[in-house]
Each structure stands twice: as C-alpha cells, then as structure tokens.
Fold each of these.
Amino acid sequence: MQVAIFILIVLVFVAVSGALARLVRVPLPVLQIAIGAALALPVRGLHVEIDPELFLLVFIPPLLFSDAVTAPKRELLALRGPILDLAIGLVFFTIVGFGYALHWLVPSVPLVVAFALAAVLSPTDAVAVSSIVDKNVVPARLMHILEGESLLNDASGLVMFRFAVAAVLTGSFSFAAASLTFLYAVAIGILAGVVALFVAAKALQLLNRIGGVPAEAQVLVMVLLPFVAYLGAEHFGASGILAAVTAGMLTGGSGVFRFLGVSARMQTMSLWTTLSFVFNGALFILLGLQLPDIIGNVPPGLSGRYPVIQPILTVLALTLCLIGLRFVWIWIGDTTARVLARLRKRKSEPFGLRIRLAGSVAGVRGAITLAGILSLPLAMPDGSPFPARDEVIFLAAGVIICSLAIASLALPKIAHGLVEPGEDPGAAEERLARVGAAKAAIARIENMAAAEDGDEGEVPGALLAAADSIVAGYRRRIAASDEADEARAEAREAGRMELELRLAGIEAERTAVRAMFRSREINDHTMRALLTEITLTEALLKGWQARK
C-alpha cells in the first residue's frame, strides 16, 4: 500500500511540475529535481531505495526509444561524423582526462576508480538536453548533434564503466579484451534492436491476419518493443541501451506502422507522448529524492580542512573540468574537419567560439549517471569495502546538480542571438511539403472526376459539387503557403473565418449531443462515441490552427 501511495504522490507532483515550470520559468528537470529533494527532507519527508538495475530497466528503454523514434533521421545521418566523434571519441577522451584530474584533485580516490567515475559521467542525458536546450535559440545543426550524441554515448560510457569496475574487482585490465568486448556489446546491441523490431512487426502482422483484434493489443506490442530489445541485449551481455535506441531509430522507416490500424496509430502516438512526459518527470523527481541523503553525508575523504566549502569547490572544479574537456574535443574535431575539407576541396561549416561553448555547456549529466554509479559493488571479492565508493557517489551526484545548474543559467545567455532571424528551414520545408501534397490531392480528385466522365459521359452533379468543394479547400491550403505576403494573408483570413465557423458548428454539435443525453434520447455509450468523434475533429482543426 505504501508503494502505491508513493507512486501516486510522484505522479501528482509530475503534473504539478508541468504547470509550475511555466509560472516560475525554470527548466523542468531542475524544478522536478528540486521537488524531489524537498520531498526527501528529513523527519517527515519521503525516502525510497532504488535498485539501479530496475531503475535502468523501467525508465531508460522507453525514454530513449521515444527520443530515437522522434529524432530527425536524415539530419542525424548527415551529421554522423561529428555525432560518432562525440559519442565514442569524447567518451574515451573524458575517461582519460577526467580520471587523471580526479585522482590528482582527490588522491584518496584510486586511479582505476576515478576512471570508473569518468566513464559513468561521460554519457550526456538526452532528456535533460532536450528540456534545457531551446531549439528556437540553438542552431539546428548543433541541436541535432547534441541529440544524436546523447542517444549513442550512453552505450559507450556504460560499457567502459563496466570494464573499469571489473578492473577494480580483479586488479587487472586487458586493453585487447576490453576492445573486443566493446565491439561485441555494440554489435550484439544493434542486432538485438533489429531483431526486436522484426519480432514486433511479425506480431502486429499476425494480429492483423486474425482480424477483430482490439487496437489496444496492437498498442501494447509497441509499448513492449523497447523493453524486449533492452532485455534481449542484456541477456547476451550486450548494450541494452543501444538496442532500445536502434529499435527506435529504425521504427519509423521500417514500415511497422502500416500494420497498425488508424485507431491503434492514434492511441500509440498519444500514449507515447503521455508516457514520455510521465516517465521524464518521475525520473527527475526520483533523482531528487536520492540527492539529500547522498549530499547530506559528505565522505571524510572530501571534507579536508573546510568540511563545507571544500566539497563544493571540488564538485565545481570537476564540473568545469568536464566542460573544458568537451570544449577541447569539440575544437579538435571542428578543426580536423575543416582541415580535411580543405584537403578534399570541399566546403566546410566550422563552428564559431560561441557555438563550441554552447555545445560544451549543454553536455549535462542526469539519470543514467546516477543509476550507473549507484550500481557500484559494496564490497571487493575478499570482503573489504569497495574503494572510495562513497566519495565517487557523492561526486557524481554533485556533478549532476552542478551541470544542470550551469546549463540552465549560462546556456540561454550563450545561445542568445546564435540563430539569425528569418524563416526556420524546417518550417519552409514543411510549407513546401504541404503545397506538394495538396497539388497531388487535387490531381487525384480531378482524375477521379474525369474517370467518371469517361465512364458515364457526364459527371454526376453530386460528384462535381463534392470535387469542387474538396479542391477549393486544397487550393486555399496552397494559397496559404504561397510566398506572396498578400496572397497568404488573404488565404489565411479566409481560412480563419472558415475555421471559426467549423469550431462553432462543433460546439453546437457537442451541446446538442449532451442535450440529447440529458433528455434520454441517447444512452451514455452513444454519447461517448459521438463526443469522441467531435473531439478528434476539433483537435485536428485546432492543431492546424496552432501550426498557422
């Protein structure tokens, strides 16, 4: 009963945080961590012990799958060079640089343990990045690189973290064995994602052949997909995170959605949107619940002469070290790409200083870092305590908070003015796509009317009226996308008036249906069916209005 109440409390505060973030103008992850920390205050607060493996299983696969499904595949493929450079190269660079810096700054932390902390700090948090980085003020190219990096570096960082922990436990490390294991984890992880997607497609295809299967059954297959991919990869000792990301990246282009009915497609999209919001919020609140106990117990190895100031300065120095390492690596990669482009006589798009700095600050850490560091063993094989375990857990929690705070405060100022005013390239592409789709629809409708004319010698009046009405709507859509300001303004005004009339008609329909229910002319089942159709139509119209 206590677990159920705890879950309900977390869900309530997830909903509350969504409203508060708009009022206090604080990034949602920061606000949710603060709420979790407040709930975990001593005496009358909430406390929860989290199993790191269960934490990873419940939250990470669906969240990364959802982010991968919505990621811009074309842009990520075009930017695969810098993305892989950050997702793999920067991880190894961070492990070496940060590991030695930590061991020098805190000598009580053994070097191998410092490498383990560096590895688990390497992955950036995809959820936190998308929540903090405003896509309207950050150049699209940089945003795509950050998204792609955060989807892929979890696998490389956690795999290297396992190697470092194994080296601590066994006292030995083989670079050749580690390299082979890393390649195995990546290859089998990708394969597991592909296989899970294939199995899901076959399951949906089978449900279609059976016929009459509820849409909810099809939706459930899509919900289980990331978990199947994750568990399948983990079973074979590979990267479950990479498996979930692979399944999400391939879902859109695999054609799996063609096996879903219309109702199932709508329910799937709505459910994933809701789950993403709920899981994101619950993840950061749970993260906040852990922090007071971790930060409140400063390990003796970090206290020194100044028990309060020294731990804070250590965390700040390590966070700035991570930012500095990212800046150096981005600068090296950018410079190398520019030199190679000149040698190949190709055009290059180098980053400026502010974009490099924005990309460095945006590398925030989050849930995967905390879950990974909490999974450290309590004891060595001989029964002795795991070396410096409390110190690295404290430092990891501190770096998470510090990186989020720095990004929240500094990134908006750094990124301000980086995007030049003008039409968003994505909006222009969408406008052209709308025009092309509308023209194709007009051509199809006119061909259908002409075919009727050829078969019967005369176009029926009802068909002609219907065709004219539909074509007129498509022509208004084309006019609304016209580059001429006057034509667009006139078409939009006509569209606005039509929209108002349609919405007024929808409201009248809703009122009439409710009146018929109150007078018992229809039952509640009929009322719900009609109101669902009316609400769907209204949602489509208002969605069109919002895009305009």
Amino acid sequence: MYRFLPLIASLAMLALFSVMVPVSSFFWIGVILMGGLSGIGLYDVFQTRHTLWRNFPIVARIRWIAEELRPFFRSYIVESDTEGRPFNHEERAMVYRRAKDVSSVEPFGSQLDIDSPPYEWLSHSIAARHPKSGDPRVKVGAPGTAKPYEASVLNISAMSFGSLGSHAVEALNRGAAKGGFYHDTGEGGVSKYHRAGGGDLVWELGSGYFGCRAKDGSFDPARFSDVAASDQVKMIEIKLSQGAKPGHGGVLPGNKVTTEIAEARGIPIGETCYSPAAHTAFSTPKQMMDFIAQLRELSGGKPVGIKLCVGNRWEVLALCKAMRQTGIMPDFVVVDGAEGGTGAAPAEFMDHIGAPLRQGLVLVRNALVGCDLKQHVRIAASGKQISAFSMAASMALGADWINTARGFMFSLGCIQSLNCHNNSCPTGIATTDAGRQRGLVIPDKAERVYNFHRNTIRALMEVVGAAGCEHPGELTPRHIMHRVTQDVAQPAHRAYNLLEPGVLISGADDTHLAREWAMAQADSFAPLQID
C-alpha cells in the first residue's frame, strides 16, 4: 500500500482539517492544498489512460514535471559549453553577444578537442591582411539572366510565415533591409509581414506552389508573374527538398488556415491544404530546366535557382547533364544539409535521411566543377552555419554564400526550448499565439538581426584576412586542413577528393563518380542500369 501513501495522507489531513476550528489564514491554505492533492489523487486512481497515475497516484506526476523541466536543467545546469544539441551553449552565446553588439571574445583557450577527427582548421598566412571591404557581395546571374542580383555572403534562410509568427517575420525583414542582405520567404508564400520592412526577398516555391497555386494545386503562371513582379522579390528559389525532412510532403489542417495564412499562400480559408512530396510542374531533369527558364521569363529576367538536400548522387549529376544538353541552367543551387532545422519533422527524417551539409556541398561542387558549370552557377550552403569559421570552411569548399535560419532565430532571442511544433514558443518567435508574440518587440529585435549579420560578417572578414585573402571568394580548399585521424591531417582538396574543372566531361571514368555519372540521364531521374 506504500504506493497510495501520498493519497491516504492527503485524505487524512483533509479529514483532520474538516473537524478543526479555523484559527488563522494558514488553516485555509492547508485546506486548499490538501483538497487539491486529494482531488488529483482520486482522479489518478479512477482514470484509465495512464498506468503510472493509477498505480502511483499523486507521486507519479513528478515524472511528468521532470520531463517538462528536463530540457532546461540539461541545457543550463548539466551540459558543458560544448555538449548541447542541436546548438551548444558556446554557439548560442556567441550569437546572442553579436546580436546585442557586445564583445564575443573568449578567454583561456579553445574548449574543443583539437586532436580528434573531424576537427578542422584554417591555414593562416604569414602575409595576413586587413581586408578593406566590410560588405563582400556575390553576383548571381547565369548567362541570359537579365536582372542579376548582388547577394550578401550571409542571408536569412527559408522560414515561412505560419511556422514563424508575424512579429518574428517582420523583425527579420526589417533587419535585412537595414543590413542589405536577403530574407528567404520559405515555401509559405510572400506574406505582408515579409514585405513590411522593405528588405530584399527570395521567394521560395515548394511543391505546394503557395502564392502561385491554382485551384487544383498545380502551378499558376499568371499568379506567379503577379507576385514575382514586385521589386522587393529579387530571386526565385525552387525548393526540391529541405535538410530536416527531404522527400516529405506536408498537410496544413484547415483549422490552421487563417485569413492571413490563406492570403499569403493563395488558398481558401479554412480548407485543408496538401503539399506533395515532389513537384508536379516537372518530372525529369530536362523539364526542370524548362521550368527554370519559364520562371525566369515570367519574373522579367530575375535569377532562378534550386534548393535541395542531396540524396541520390546520380540525380545531382543528371541535373548537370540536363544543363549541358539544354543550355539552360539555374542561377544558383542552395545545398541544405540534413542537420538543418524545421518546425516539425519525423525523427527518422531528421536523423537518418539526406546528406549532411559537408557531404552534400562537396558533391554539388564536384558535379558543377566537373561539368565546367561552376563559373555560371553559384552555390549557397545552408545548415547549422553560424560562425565565421563554418562560413569560411564552406566557402573554401565551393559555396559562394551562406544562409542560416536558426542563427537569425537566436538573434531574435530564441532559447532553443524545442517547442517550435506546438505553438507554445516562450519567446514568441515560432508561434502564432498573439499573447506570446507580444513579448517580441519588432524594432528591438530588428536591430539585433542587423547586429548579428554585421558582426558575423566582420568576424568572417577577419578570418579571410588571416588567410591572406581580400574576399571570401578567394578561399580555396587548400586553406582548410581536415584531421582524418589523430595523427594525420590533410588539406580539404585531398580529404574530400575534389575534382578538377571539366573532368567529368573529358574523363569521368578516372574519377570516383564514374559509376554515378554513367547512371545519370538528362531525360529521367531514374538511374540507368549499369552492368
């Protein structure tokens, strides 16, 4: 009967209070406390959903309290500065300090295990420089693109209105406008909050074609042209997949389709909306190139790119074959790593589907360089990129610029509470709850977004200067050393087996991608059967 002692004790105390004469206010506090505990205990005994509650009334609820508090205790008390996931305390603190425009220097040396793989470092130069430019730009525009865009080397990655609240979206856009970098809309369409600050936008088109969606869910060219005509929309990004849940479609329940969501996405209010796992506007690599050309024409010549998390290697090579055969190519490719974030995804997708950023970036770089296309097609890297070194390493391996979502969320005040999926974000960022959003003051957070970008670019240029370069685009794989074992470290071009320009065209059989190159075909995403 020890399991029921808390319930028995609370009932006994309640019975005792009932025969006592009230002598002070503490008496009524005791009555309320024992009455509440007794009620909870009796409910636990007779309810049928929770075994532990039935077997251990009252006391079993401590487990649920512990479950709720566990992330906070782990993050703030148990973990060391470098242990946390997805982002550790040291990484988050760096963003907070840069967003608040205070010093982000650290004392007493590195806390990283620099003797174990996969530790990496940048090879600095004896002839280090102090780069003159504090705002390096990248020109985006393949041959035939009438309106090329000068992009910052750090931009806000895709986050839809709905996954983020209106205050967060508006603060991000106002910060982007002040800092001169772009704000990716996410696949939820161009909302009025994305437009509120006047910042540059990259309009992301997912398989749901939100913002240019016909009644049957297909692509509507006329609606696309209307939205793309906005001067604020600088580029178009076709989302093929995203890192945290590649190959996963989506369902937006009708009860979440509010008036504002419906307006941004171009869907009926209150109706359940489905996003298929794959696009319906094309089904082959060549058709994708034709779709890119169509969007470029409909937008008046704005750059059009694709975003993907790398899966089958032959499919990436098939895209390159289609580019060469059609003469049509995207202006840019955003490589999203499997370590990227999302508001909600199945654990299997987050943990085990899709290539991590480094492997995906290397493959896309090898494919474009090996096909002699890299001089026309820019590469962006997205997925857990918040420090100057992570940016420099990705750019040395082929990326032209970096996108980050969670980095800018931290700049807004995100505390990594992991409540993005249940609309109860305590900081008012990943929620549509008006009461919680009230705590996010737009002008203040917009300034922090601007500060984070400015201070991170400043740190990047210090790293670039240490390598003896003036612009991040001058970084090469040889600037990055990769520890393969505790005793062996190699420059990145060897560690990652990087290809030379044009080698897939002139001699693919001598490369490590020979088999996948032979399997790839421009007319289908399916692989050719190779003996």
Amino acid sequence: MSVRQPSAYRPTKPDIAVFVSGVTSMGLEILAGRIIAPQFGSSIYTWGSIITVFLTALSLGYWQGGKQAGEASNRRMCWLMLGTAGYVAIVVYGSDQLLLSASALPLPARYASLPAVLVLFGPPTYLLGFISPYAAELSAKEGTGEASGHVYALGTIGSIVGAGATTYFLIPALGIDAIGLLFGFVLVGTALALTLPTLAPTPAAASVAIALVLVVAAGIGPVAFDHRGDVVYQTQTAYQELEVIDNGDERTLYLDGARHSAMDLDDPERHVFEYTRYFHIPMLMVDDPAEVENVLFIGGGGYTGPKDYERTYDVDVDVAELDPEVSQAAKDYFRLEESENMTVHTKDGRQFLRETDKNYDMIVLDAYQKDQVPVHLTQVGFMELAADRLTDDGVFLANVISAPSGAGSDFYRAQYKTIDEAFASTYSYRTSDWGSVQNIEVVATKADTDFTEADLAERNERRDLGLDLRTEIDASLDPPKTDDVPVLTADHAPVENLQASTIGQEYVIERTGEEETTPEPASIAVGSERYDRARPAPTLEFESSIPGPRPLGSAPA
C-alpha cells in the first residue's frame, strides 16, 4: 500500500475556503470577547453567550449548507465570503452604538449580552457555516466519510490557527478595528481566489466595493458618542481594553470601559476618588505605624494607592499587577516611578503570594476585571494565603464593589463572610451615603482585635498619617447578615450569581471636593438606565419624590 507524501498534497479551492472559514470564525469568536467586554464585562455569562451564539449559528449554517449542497460551487462560496466580509464592516463601524442600545434592554444580568452577541456575530458565523458542507460536496475525495473527515480536519486546523493567532499575536499588537479589517481583507482575498483564473466582473466589482467599505468603516471607527472626554491613549492588552482619557484637568484610566483610577493633572497628590482615602485605615489598626515596613498592593491600575503609600510613609511598596501594559500606562500617564521603595511585579496576585518568602505588614487587594474581582482572589484559600503572608499584627484590606445592604449586597456579604473565615477580626466601611452599588472597604486584622469608632478616632488624633480620617471612620458598617450567602471556596464561588443581584442598581463612585455625586449604572449590573441617563443624586429637599435607591443618613458630602 502506498502512502502519499505530505509534499504531494495540493490544497484545492474548497480546501482553502474551509481553512479560511475556520480561521475567521474562531478569530471572530475570540475578538467578540474584546468587543463585548467593555459594555457587559467578561464573566462566565458573557462568554457563555458568545460560545452559544457561535455554535448555534455554525450549526444552522451547516444544516442549511447541507440541504443546499447539491448547488454548491466555488462561485457560491465566493459570495458567502463576500457577504461575511461585508458584515464584518458593519461590526467594526456599528458595534459600539449597538452595544449601548442592547445594554438598555431590561434583561437579567446573565442574559444581558446575548442580544448584542446575536446581532453582531450570528449572521457572519451563520454564513461561514455554509462553507464546510459546500466544500465536502465539491471535494475530490472518494466517499462521504473521507470527504467529511478531510473538511473537518481542515476547518479545525483553521480554527486552531485563528484562535492562536488572534489571542497571542493580533490582540496584543493591533486594535479591534484593525483586526476586523484584517479578517475582512482575508475573506475578500479568499473570495477573489475562488473565482480565479477567470475573474468574473460581478464578484470582482463586489470585492472592490466591500474592501472599500471595510477601509471606510475602520477609518471612521465605531459610531458612538464618547461622553468621557479626550482619548489620550488606547490599546488592546493581552487581558483587556486599556484607555487613558482626559476630561478637563482630570485623567482617568479605563479598563474594559470601567473607571479604575483617576489623577488630578494640576494636583497629582489629590485623591480624586474618595475610596482611595480608605486605604489608609489599616494604618490606624497596626500597633505602631512607624514599624510598618513592607506593604503589598495586589492590582495596580493607575497606582494611586501604591504611590500614595510611598509618598506618605517610610515603607517599601510591592505591587503585583498581572498586566504589564497597565503598569506601563501608569508610568507613561500617571507619574509612576519605580524606585528602591516601589517595586512592580508582573504577576498574578495569588501566584505572587504563593512564591514570595516575604512577610508584609499590610496587604491591599484592589484587583479588578471591569467591576469584578477575579474569582480566584475572592476565595477563602486566597484569604488564608494572604493571612499567612502577614506579620502578626498585619492588616488586610479588600476593595469590594457592591451594595452595603439590601438588594445588590449579596457579593459584599459573601466576601465579608469569606474574609472573616480567614482572619481573626473583620470590619467594613462604606464610601458613600447612597444605598446603591459602591466601593466598600473590608478591613481584617490577623490578630484578634475589637476596635470601636472611638478607638480609631482617638488614634486618628494621635497619629500623624498625613490625612484626617474622621469621615472615613464614621462610615463604618455593622457586621452584615451572612446566613444566606456562602463562604467562597475553590469548589464553590458563584461570584457572577451573587453580583447578579445588583440589577437596577447604580454604581456610585464618590469624588473628593464635590457637594453632590452623580451615580452611573453599575457595569456589573445591566438595567434599564445607562450612562447617558444617569440619575443625579437627590438632595434632602426632594429625595422622597424620586424613586430608586436613596441615601442612608445624611446627604453625600
């Protein structure tokens, strides 16, 4: 029996079409995560929607393509490729506006991204599904089994190439528009190749027209009004979309569309967001601030906390930041400078804690993907690891985005319960008088402590910390009810389900120096209100006439 040598294989036109359809379908699926994430996050529900839509669309395409396979031809596949390329141009141009419109639909958080994924990626994936049965029909292989196996193998190889190239090369190197343009050109080029050597006038003219549409769509960019300000820098990192935006004299870091850090360009030492002031509360809980030597921040962002600690105290600051592009942006745009006292480690926080032999007097957890703490940093195993890396009187602080009570508080209460499982004493502080989603600072001590507000107020008077924390101390919360929420473990950490309770809530980030805070809809909870319709905070005079979450206690200061 003779064995065909690999060099003897010459791909046919249908083979090329199948391979390219595999490359583009899987490449678009990976790219979909980046397009959808800024509006809907990158939770398991978002990726579940993407995978469900792509598999459903491909299956329908396979089915319809099989039914019509008797009419298969290279010319038909050419038109399928051109149709897909044309729709990619629509995705490049209209994705942002469509995402904003889809986010206004009153759907539960777990299903919120499904309509957008369906409209953006269902049609092109459906068209690509026709290619495989057409190619099998046109295959020169003997027998249905051999033809099918050949097509499956080529399509799968194409998918492997598409997934690998998009993940490891295209997204780190190019923007979303450029990647869409590249996929569109590959489809147009393949369509033309299918008509060779005789170039029919109609497909040729359509190819030129669609190529021009792709160039125009990528050149104009997505159509959507950006209310945030002037984009100073934008890139797609290996982990997220990163934007630096200036609005007047304030510069803000956005990761996947969510605000992560802000800096006053005229007064870089000012805390723009109130919650970063709470990072200093642990200094009231240690026995002696002068004995604090080593501090670890897990999550860098714009490095507001780490820079503040290095500037205010005589301490060595380590920062574990997974995304090197975030650290580089902090250096380029947020005045981060590494020094003998400031060391940046490009590593996952949990991995860093496992590998380090250093003990810390303080650990601050401020790591987020959009508005979600990475699941492995919410679990009791991580909390126990953090406690093990603290000195005997060490203090742990976790920045948690959730509501302090009632609707939307499930994640906070579960995180509090989990932290309390690993530490001797646990405290928490709200950062806004609003009852809606906000930054809640959960502080835990390794030693058994029983601090009262009076104790901390007295220490605040005696200790020269560089800022007055009386307001922050007064924002302490009573221990929450945790009977109905789980301890988050490696085996069971339903973070997405817990955060789904924030539906309809608004995300309040208090800003320093403002008399009134304007909430914006929580990006972890998609409701009917969106960024351009954020409801202003009510004052005491007319709060009772406005429905929705209301301030607890006095009006925001």
Amino acid sequence: MSTTLPPEIAPGALDDQTAARVEALIEEEEGAQNRFSGWLGWVGTGVALAMALFHLWAAWDIVPTTTLRFVHVGFAMALGFLLFPVARRFRHRFMPWDWALLAAGIYVTWYLIAGGDDLLDRYVFPEPMDLVIGWILVVLVLEVARRATGWVMPVVAGLFMLYAFFGNLLPPPWRHQGYGTDRLIPHLTITLDGIFGTAVDVSASLIILFTIYGAILQLSGAGKFFVDFSFSATGGKATSAGRTVVLSSFLLGGPSGSGVATTVTLGTVAWPMMRRVGYRPDDAGGLLAAGGLGAIISPPVLGAAAFLIAEYLKIGYLEVLRMAAVPTVLYYASLLFMVELDQRRIGAKHAAAGTEREVISVESPWALTKKYGFHFSSLLAIVVFMVLGYSPTLSVLYAMVVAVLLSFLRRDSALWPRKLVQALASGAIQSVGIAATCACAGIIVGVITLTGLGLKFSEIAIQAAGGNLVITALYTALIVWIVGLAVPVTASYIICAVVAAPALIKLGVPDYAAHMFVFYYAVLSEVSPPTALSPFAAAAITGAGPYRTTLQAWKYTLPAFVLPFVFVTDPDGVGLLLAFKPGMGWGDVALQIFLAAAGLAALSAACQGFARRAMAGWERAGFAVAGLLMIFPALVEAAFGDAVPAPHWIGVALGAVLLALQWRSTSRAATA
C-alpha cells in the first residue's frame, strides 16, 4: 500500500509531528517507498499499471499457472526494487545497485518463462545454470521481502534454509537426512512447492485483484463515505463515539484492506469526539486498534489469509465467507459489549463529577445516503456475483466494473481515466508487500514440505500435550501467537497452516475448523508487539503510551479471541462456522450462538470491571468464570472430567445470578 496517509484523512486533521509518526509506523508494515518525480515517477506508474492490467487480463482470459506465478513475482521484484530503497538514507534516489537488482529480476523471470516445461522436467537433475538462476532468485526474493516488509521474514526464511542444509546434524526428532544445493534450490525455485507455491498462486490470482478493487473504492470515495455515514448513523448520542468506531471498522474493512490503515483513518476522525465524551487516550487507542483488527476479519473481503484458506482446503471463497460470518458478528458484538460498558463507566464518572458529556451534532444519514449510497454496493457486489455462480476471480473483476460505473453518479467520485490509472497503479503497488511476503513464505513452506518438518512438529506437539485436544489447542494458539509476534498476518497463517494445523486435524478436528482457528490467532499479530502497528499508530494519534495502548487493545479483543477454541474443542462448536456435524440442526446452531454471545458479554464485563455498576474483584472473577464456562466448557471437562456436569448451563446460571445481584444493588441505590 502507499505509505502516504489514507485519503479519508483531511489535510490538517493531524499536526505535522503526529502525521510523521503515523506515516513512519505505516512504513514499518509497508516499507518506506520512494517518491519519484519526472521520468522515474512515470516509469514507476507505468510498471505498476502494466502489472495491474496483466492481472486483470489474466482474470478474464486463461494464463498458464506457471506463467502467471512467474510474472507475478517478476513484477513484484521490479516494483520492489524500483519503489523501495535499500535503506532509508537512500530514499527518493534510484541507485546503481537498484538498477542491477531490477535487471537481475527481469532476467530471472525471463529465464523461468523461457525454460517452460523443459525447465520443470529437469528439476531433479538441474543444469548448472538452473542452480545459478535459482540462487539469484532466492537472494532477490529475500531482498525484496526485506525492503517491503522488514528483516524478520528474510531472516526466518534463511534459518529454515539452514535447517534444510544442516538438519542431519541435529538430534532427533528434528533430524532429517540433509539436503544439498542440487536438491533444495530446484525444489524452492523451479517446482510449485516453494517460492511459486500456493501462497504466490493465491496472491497472483486473487489477492492482487482485491487490492486493486480496494484502491478503486478508495479513489472513488467509498472509504470517506463509510466513515461519514458511521458518524452520522450513530451521532448525537452518548454512546456514539465507541459505536461509531465499531461500525466504521466493519464498513472500512473492504476498502482499506489493512488493519493499520483502518486504525489511522478512524483515529484521526474519532479521537477528538472520543476525548470529548470522556475516553482516556490509552482506552481510545485500544478501541481504535481493536476496530482496525476487526477490518481484517470482516466479510466480504477479510484479510489476504482468507484466500489462502480457500486454496489450502480446496473450497470456494464463498464457503470461507460463510464460515467467517458468525465469528465476525460475534467479534463486533464483543466490541459493542465493551463499548456499552465503557459508556456506562464513563457516564458514571461524569454523573459523580456533576458534569455533562458533550452531544455531537452530525448530518442526517439519509442525506448522505442519497448522495453516496451507491457505495454500499461494494459490500454486496462480490458476494452477489459469487452466489450467481461466478468464480471469485470473475466476481471481483465484475465488482470493479460496477464500482467504476457507479462512481460516475457523482462528479466528485467519478473515476475518469487519470484517476482510474492512479487507482490501478496504487492497487498494484499495494500488492507488492503481500507478493513479497508470499514468495518469502514459500521458501519456508518449501523447506517444511521437503524435510517433513510439519509432520514432525505435529507429532511433537501431540506428544507434549499427551494426546489431549484441549492442551494441543492451547499449544497451537500459543505457537501461532508467537509466530505472529514476528511476522504479519498472512505469513503467520501460511507458516502455521503447514506446521500447527495438522496437529489439530490428527486429533479429529475438521480441517476447516483447524484452519479457521489458526487464521483467527494469526490475526492477533495485528495487536501483538513487536509488530503491534495498529496500537502503535493509535497511540501516536491519541498521545498515549504505545505499550499501554497495546494492553488496552488486548483487553478489547480478548473476549472474542477465546471464541476460536469452540471451533476445535466442542464437537458442536462447528455450528458457529455454519457447518453441521451429523445430527445437528439450526436449533443447535442457534444454541451455540446464544451461548457464545452470552459468554462474550460475561467476559466483556469481567475485562471492563463494570456491568450495572463497578465490580468488586470477586465479581469480576465470577463473570470471567461464567464466560469461560459458556464459551470454553471443554477446558473444564479437560480439568475435571465429568465431575462438573453441563458446564454451559452452570455458566449461564452463574452469570444470571451475578447480573441479578448487580441489578438489585443499583436498584437499591436508585431508591435510596
């Protein structure tokens, strides 16, 4: 994505110092881009436009799989070396080594395409030049990933390559036979199991189309409309500030395509209002970051990892959307619970101080809808086309056409050729970081498949957990979370889908549930240091401490991230994914949704320390226990067996009793 601030942020919305800090944080995720003028600027735009047009053509016509993947990585390398400097001090200058790397990337791409089937056929007995080209490709991929995403991914990929070369020197169970250059390099660079594996295939065939679609929506003003509409629809009420953040984050998920961009867009507009109604800077920053995280899991676009789920499971993308629907609603329900309790707590403080909170005046939502309501079509178009039977590729292509045509309903949103070229080029540039991440992750996955590390790791995890599903799930969540500390969401999912998910599947968890479990915990990397860029960006806007803001973001997201354990530890929990095991019906699904929602409400109250009134410590503990019993009864069953019958309903009863006690005490206080 562009490292400039999102277009929804009006000039002057941030002071120069804060804007610089926010932009620096975005650059940590998306790389520090060169901003060329003159002929270099035209070249950069031309290459990006060529990349976009090639992939639009590939979406319409048939392009051989190998050619599509080779060209996609080739374009990513060309744009990466052109637009991302080797170091910040060389920014906005195109240095001689950039020319050399760009030329090398073009030559390697030509060599792979020209090699054709002959190259693929001889990967077992490669020629010397194949190995030279392979090593050059590995180095180029590591370097473009470093420029676009930072040091972590290339270093991790390099460590995996060392494991492939020298794994024969390790003790069991990590030992393998060891592989030389003749075996490893062709596997990573010629076959479709390494750099050009599933991740790059999804990036080339789907993700780039969605980034282009998101850029079209941004340039046509859809993002700004969704922010304005959310403020309008929820304005004028005491609870409008928090509710606005929740609603805006859901609507912005598609157009922004980035958690940190959503956080920045919302923060610049929402923070002044949140401050006026009583939010502390760290609380506001935590809620803004939690909203940005929600954008990654919001249909119809979700995050890039969602496309990989469809590919790994060999299911339609519409199936992934179906599975994500209820968990997404429950995530936002959890945020709304937290927001409502925020407002009760803040309102109680204002009442005790004898002050009134300012009411925000906003324009009527109907007036906005009459002007820009056509932007709502972007939330439905892709799904409608898929329901009509079109592939995800054609669905997003047709949705782009609809968005471009509808943009001409308003003069200020019309995508005339100059603006459309800008959108296409911007979408291609946004995909460079993702393509580089997927190619670099392909090195890791290639080593895992070649050495059998995934199977070894599954056996180790299961043995360490004693074959217990609940403990294995806890281990898996911890592993995914730790991996997510170092790498972005997409890379975290790619690695853990190969390494961690098989352990759950071996213990009888349906493959789709295991992958959705891994996906939701990979998303945690958006609010987990040291890659907690959303909370850090929110902290830069609100002026709070970044780590305190991160802790508040964890508080807001914690209830919802207990939920994925239901998918894998409760046989009926797949109902939350709108999947049915034998004998299940819609009544069972409704019961699962009710228990999950009630459990999230109880956990939200425990996290906030407030329900009808401020809680004592024992009440917070009681609500936490009630929430866990409703959401995660398998934890109790794993600890106590059948000694605690019907933990679901014990949790419901406990929550009801605690709420009744709160209600009784507040009623007494009101009548006193």
